[in-house]
Amino acid sequence: MLLMQVAIAAGVAVLATGLFLAPLGDQLDDQAMRRALAIAQATAQQPQIARDLRTTPATAHGPVQREAERVRKATGAEYVVVLDRRGVRWSHTDPRRIGEPVSTDPGEALAGHEVMEIDDGTLGRSARGKVPLRDADGAVVGAVSVGIAYDSVRARLIHAIPGLFAYAGGALAVGALAAWLISRRVQRQTRDLAFSDIAALLAEREAMLHGIREGVVALDRSGRIRLLNDEAQRLLGIGGEAVGRSPAEALGAGRTADVLAGRVTGTDLLTVCGQRVLIANRMPTDDGGAVATLRDRTELEQLGRELDSTRGLIDALRAQDHEHANRMHTLLGLLELEMYDDAVEYVGEVVGDHRATAEQITERIPDPLLAALLVGKTTVAAERGVALWVSDRTRLPDRLVDPQGLVTIVGNLVDNALDAAAGTTHARVEVELRAEGRTATLKVRDTGPGVPPEHREAVFTEGWSTKEAPAHRRRGIGLSLVRRLAERQGGSATVGAAYGGGAEFTVVLPEALAPAELEPALTAPVDPAVEKEAR
Question: How far apart are CA 123 and CA 44, in angstroms?
Answer without folding.
Answer: 22
